[in-house]
Design goal:
3 helices, alpha+beta, single chain, three-stranded antiparallel sheet
Length: 148
Amino acid sequence: MRKALLAAVLAVVTVSFSASAYSAYYVEYYRNNLFLGLAYHRVACLTDWSTIQSDQDYDGFSSSRYCYSGSSSDSVPGASCFDWNYATGAAQLDACGAHTNEVYDTPNYARRSNSCNYNIFTDCNSDCWMREFSTCQGYTIPIASPCF
């Protein structure tokens, strides 16, 4: 009886610890106006819902730096948070960023692709970059672009 009770307590503690460790980090997706509200630039930051946890921002087609470790999670200039999902940590996001940079030919999160020009009506835009990036994490965020 004691062994069964101890096993049950350990299982609950293990599950609780795993859930809290997993849910400690989030990737928040922001958007800011590019022009006349017709298009947005997308950026993602690793946060704990109160502070940004990594200096790396995850965005295609921009050379701007948005995410700074220790700053507020709402510090992305001129932006609003439009979605989020759980993240296991920066290593997972870096791997998905590297994968997406390869898909869109944007080495080191370059502001332009080496193989296509920014176009909101094709797959060469930050909406489509973010869709690929979020899909790599196992959670596809909603976007407006058709990504042909």
